[in-house]
Amino acid sequence: MGLIKSKNFKSALKTADQWFSRYIRLRDADCTGEAQCVTCNTRKHFKEMDAGHFISRRYMSTRFDEKNVHAQCQKCNKYNSGEQFLYSKEVDMLYGKGTKDQLYKKSQEIKKYTKNDLMEIARMYKTNYTAMLKSKNIDLDA
């Protein structure tokens, strides 16, 4: 998936979401490509995981906040509504007590992205994703 100039806001948002998701899932993976679900500890290859948001993606101010998003199995993310209670405990454990409250407060702020902002986010996360693949020495063709 390249970074062809998006025709509209919706396609730019989709591209930014895709690269951000790939980056987050890879960030949470070890050097074998395995990631652990933030809420149930299930381990799977990062490509089989979701990028689960603690605060819903509909809140643009926290949509691309790396503390708000972690590798999460599809069972927890899709079928168990993100396991919000367990997720909130994990966020505070990872980043310090009160982080979940800070994220909630941030989610209430108004954030408006332009199409160009979103394409810049996509470029940044594509670059970070590619660099992290190399640093973790993960070969996706193997």
The secondary-structure class comes to mainly alpha
Average pLDDT metric: 94
Helix content: 40-55%
Q: Looking across the biggest beta sheet, what order are the strands in?
A: 1-2
Terminus-to-terminus distance: 19 Å
Order of helical and strand elements = HEEEHEHHHH
Describe what this molecule looks like in 3D:
A hairpin with a 6-residue loop joins strand 1 (34-36) and strand 2. This protein starts with 8 loop residues before the first helix and ends in a 7-residue tail after the last helix. It has helices at 9-27, 60-63, 74-79, 84-95, 99-107, 115-135; strands spanning 34-36, 43-45, 50-53, 69-72. It has a two-stranded antiparallel sheet. The protein is 50% helix and 10% strand. 35% of the residues are buried. It is globular and about 40 Å long. It has 142 residues and is mainly alpha-helical.
Brief synopsis:
The chain is mainly alpha-helical and about 140 residues long.
Please outline the helices and strands.
Elements: H1 9-27, E1 34-36, E2 43-45, E3 50-53, H2 60-63, E4 69-72, H3 74-79, H4 84-95, H5 99-107, H6 115-135
Antiparallel strand pairs: 1-2, 3-4
Key structural traits:
mainly alpha, two-stranded antiparallel ribbon, 4 strands, 142 residues
